[in-house]
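Table S7 (text form). Paired inputs.
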Amino acid sequence: MTDPRRQLPSVDSLLAGPGIASLLATHPRALVVKAARAAVDEARVKGGTAPAEGWDAAVRAAVRRLAVPSLAPVINATGVVLHTNLGRAPLAPAAIAAVTRIAQGYSALEYDLGRGTRGSRHAICRDLLVELTGAADALVVNNAAGALLLALSALARGGDAIVSRGELVEIGGSFRIPDIMARSGARVVEVGTTNRTHPNDYDRALTADSRVLLKVHRSNFQVTGFTADVAVVELAEMAHARGIACVYDLGSGLMMNLSGWGLSGEPTVPEAVAAGADLIAFSGDKLLGGPQAGILVGSEAAIAACRADPIARTVRADKLTLAGLEATLALYRDPEVAIREIPVLRMLTESGDSIRARAERLGGQLIEGDSEVGGGSFPGAKLRTWLAGFPDESLAERLRANDPPIIARVAGSRVLLDARTIFPEQIDTVKAALTADG
């Protein structure tokens, strides 16, 4: 018996057919070839059965599927404001405009316009960060893990970095603080216990090889009960009394106090600077509300050591990141403007009545619930919110297939849409998707 897979058409024969001519006229030949091969391969997997819709239609469908960019915009209906899987912080309009402006042509990234000579990208954002945080100097790199790696390489390579066992946290993607520390060339020296670390724990660990006392803010979990740790101000004093450095891995990069909106316990960057650490490392795309970046602020000597370290080249930020970050930072000069214009801050501080009005427009069952900050920030904090509930668990899959995809919560047999993270201009799009699927 002849194997039906032997009867499948060749890719060349599909391309030669009149039905594919229009695809070759409007799409790159390499894409159409890949689509034709995918259609034949799919038929082969099915035992040699030709597609029910016909070969031309199968190839056209494959072209549409392959032409879709892999990075797609989505609507976040989960209520997790800093959703790592969904790209964390959406940018402010000013940041989007800045990125677009710089992306359109050449820029003075490393060119001094005044002197007409080579400049440094490290100067970009530096003055704004100094102004906003009170630090003596600042440096921007590509992400917060890179910032910590650079800080420890510059200040502790070949020596000891002392850290509390209770602060050896795991961050996103299974990356762990001790692993990053080890890669920096510093030797990790653990002190204290998981739940309690005291000043004398650090003091007993100090030797002639000690270079850094490291403080890591536990931004993505809480330890409660019988606990103790050493405040960064005390750790900085201890380090300076012994002629070594204090590095503070702050995490989320909160630039302003949000306790007025029920969010407390997260130190702000200016508070961290005032505590006296030589270097403070934090993220640009979490509570700060900007693009992915790692930011170092601190003393002139510590920042200079980081700039001179070879790792600075490997973790440097690109022009689009710097443009978006600079525009975001500029908004913080007026706190009211920052809350209004930076999406993360706007969502975290929005009133319940405003959120409820959007939830009501979605239809479904109106449910009071909780949103989350996300992004390893304000662990355990809950923000009262309003959701639209639909008793159809298959709805989540249909919403994900929408254009643009809509990502919802699933709770048992119900699909919940949290209006906090659905932008006002997205409500009609979500309503249309619900109607179409309903």
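Next pair, protein 2 of 2.
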Amino acid sequence: MTLREGENTMLPWNHGGDWAAYELEYGGAPLDFSANVSPLGLPEGVREAVRASLDRADRYPDPFCRELCRRLGEYHRLPPQWVLCGNGAADLIDRLALALRPRRALVTAPTFSEYQRALELAGCRVERFPLEEGEGFRLTERVLERIEPGLDLLVLCEPNNPTGLTTSRPLLGEILRACARAGTVLAVDECFAPFLEDQEDHSLVGELAGHPDLVVLRAFTKEYAMAGLRLGYALCSDTALLEKMGRSGPPWAVSTPAQAAGVAALEAEDYRRALRALVAEERPRLQRGLETLGCRVVPGQANYLLFFHPDPDLCPKLRARGVLLRDCGDYAGLGRGWYRAAVRTGRENGIFLHILGEVLSGG
């Protein structure tokens, strides 16, 4: 990559979706398979709500997101006081770590790296539960042995990023009960749950009333293509914990446009239906295409696929052809040769597979 004047190379994260660096280098927009965001773009109602909200841009945003929390409460059939909104799920992960100040926490590996980063910044000792490739990278009952008194926090990603795999509902129930017995807070990141065909059956939102030590994280980022607006929320029946999380970060974390966008997005049922249908149709097609090209694919259930190919340099090769792919070599528990590709439209998936095929054949 060519460095440009003023470009910061010391940022402490490495995620997908860095289209800005690509445009600085090549002067045009890439075909971005590195970010797992809805390929349908912003729902039109959201776009209109954001425009209309600019008339209130001279005022501070509602620091408590009252209207949005009320609407989210209705959407999830929960009291609005069980909802805390934030500047994306990453903001809420930081706030949870700072509010709890856990001494010991357990995360899976591989999984989203922001959990460990946030916890370590809060002074927590983070332990890892390895997801073994020989077991299909699935969470197994062995995790129950790690849930014991003295474990302050367990973080799960359902479906997991980058594998796209879910944990069986019976095992999730066992984990929830084990955490209750051990006095362990269970935080479940469900940001990709809307892409599951059976999300209502899989989600733990319905367990919140009986489990005050359960925190569920959600976001508008992926489902509604709102990554640039930054909007996420935490659900928990322990309102004291939510209040503490609210104080564990700067005020006015959610902008007026983001709040308006969230309210409008909750009305976009046709959009949600079309998105689930697209992913359900295109994910198997993308998996078959990758396998035909000699890749080993993890059969994920979300809007992305984790795959392995022995060529460790696919990302720069594809980048030179205008395609961004997520290199997963930096995930704990993976290594060079592991990649993650988003599920996009049929046309875009076809272009990606064609270019990948040419790269792999040396064309």
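The chain has a mean pLDDT of 94.
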